[in-house]
Specification:
Elements: H1 2-24, H2 37-64, H3 71-92, H4 98-106, H5 108-140, H6 147-164, H7 166-191, H8 209-223, H9 228-231, H10 241-267, H11 277-282, E1 286-287, E2 291-292, H12 295-324, H13 334-347, H14 352-392
Antiparallel strand pairs: 1-2
Helix pairs in contact: 2-7, 2-8, 2-10, 2-12, 3-8, 3-10, 3-14, 4-5, 4-14, 5-6, 5-12, 5-13, 5-14, 6-7, 6-12, 6-13, 7-12, 8-14
């Protein structure tokens, strides 16, 4: 009898610990790994910049023309707002994931629907970015390779990084960060003798309206900093989250301004007609008829950046679904979601023409609404409710 009572006591204590961790940790801990704020920044930077440096220059030039370098500066405001609100929201609800915060703020059923929208958005966007990655490689380099091979091989590779968890993903991003950033600087340095700086004139000849229109496109990429909400609960130094988040936005803004100016100085008025502006600019590099054809540098930047970007989004999808469904582990979801991403790479964008139209017209507004605007609404409601509780003298 004593043995049975002891076993029951142990069982009850385990259940109590589980319930306390569920109440204090705000649900099942799906990800137990820990990373630093610097590692978070090294994930976020290539996750935003990887596709932006190739696509944004031509898309922005279509509206802003020679003033395309100003547009990322304006668009970075969206990044600063997104990061600031995400960190503040996490400070208001420490230890909770974004889905629990949403449900607590607007109610269980509306919260579940909003969470479903976020998950679906990331699945669709990840399918779109993998399609863009595959189309770039096939059209520019691997012309005889089936598109599905390039897409499926990248998803297969990213699945192993995601399976390792946030710590493995952070270490991979930390390792690849210099391999992504240094070739970009190397490319800019080699193109500098071909700069025609006069292409920047006249500045603001058509006023601010074209510049603002051009800023809409990169603002969609800056809104993707919403990813930070999934990494904040895993930080070991949460006090530095705001600092490194702001530095990440600033670094992305400087990189996009540099990429836009480089493309403008080399390609000039022909820039809006180019799809992958930096790759087209790299054709100009030629030293002593020997050091030339450096499209491979652009390809290396794209592949390394795409690996980190797709892995980050892939991880957020499986982690988000597990948190949304209150599962204890996200790993069983990795391979089914990987197959779904490959399928969405064809469903969401059936052709390269549709892909270009989606990136220039649909994606910026879609990204802003689902990520930044939703985050602002949740933050405003949470802040109002918090002030109401304080007035009523109620504690959290």
């Amino acid at each position: 009898m004593k043995k049975i009572r002891r076993q029951r006591g142990i069982s009850l204590r385990k259940e109590a610990v589980f319930l306390i961790s569920y109440r204090e940790g705000e649900g099942l801990i799906v990800e137990k790994g820990k990373i630093s704020s610097l590692q978070m920044a090294m994930i976020l930077y290539p996750a935003i910049v990887a596709t932006a440096i190739l696509l944004v220059p031509s898309l922005t030039a279509h509206y802003a023309k020679q003033d395309l370098w100003i547009s990322p500066i304006l668009a970075s405001i969206i990044g600063f707002v997104t990061v600031f609100i995400a960190v503040r929201l996490h400070q208001l609800h420490p230890g909770k994931n974004i889905f629990q915060i949403i449900e607590e703020t607007i109610g269980r059923l509306p919260g579940k629907l909003a969470g479903l929208l976020i998950v679906f958005f990331y699945i669709e966007i990840t399918g779109e970015m993998t399609r863009g990655y595959g189309s770039f490689l096939v059209n520019a380099f691997l012309k005889q390779t089936p598109l599905v091979v390039t897409i499926a091989s990248m998803i297969f590779l990213c699945a192993f990084a995601v399976y390792g968890g946030i710590e493995v993903l952070a270490r991979a991003a930390q390792f690849f960060f210099p391999l992504f950033f240094i070739p970009f600087l190397f490319l800019i340095l080699l193109l500098s003798p071909y700069f025609e700086v006069h292409y920047i004139e006249p500045i603001l000849a058509d006023g601010w309206v074209p510049v603002i229109k051009g800023a809409v496109v990169p603002s969609g990429w800056f809104a993707e900093l919403f990813l930070i909400v999934f990494f904040l609960p895993c930080l070991t130094d949460k006090g530095k989250a705001m600092k490194y988040g702001i530095l990440t936005v600033a670094g992305i803004g400087i990189t996009l301004v540099t990429a836009n100016l480089t493309a403008l100085f080399v390609l000039g008025p022909t820039l809006p007609t180019k799809v992958y502006a930096l790759m087209n600019a790299s054709h100009y590099i030629s030293y002593a008829d020997f050091f030339e054809n450096l499209e491979s540098v652009t390809m290396a930047i794209w592949i390394i950046g795409a690996f980190v970007k797709i892995s980050a989004f892939y991880y957020v999808i499986v982690l988000g679904i597990a948190q949304w469904l209150n599962l204890s582990d996200y790993r069983p979801l990795i391979w089914p979601i990987g197959i779904l991403i490959v399928e969405f790479s064809y469903w969401s964008v059936p052709s390269s023409i549709e892909l270009a139209r989606f990136e220039s017209r649909t994606f910026p507004f879609y990204s802003l609404v689902v990520q930044t605007l939703l985050l602002i609404i949740i933050f405003v409601i949470a802040s109002v409710r918090r002030k109401g509780r304080k007035k009523l003298g109620l504690s959290e």
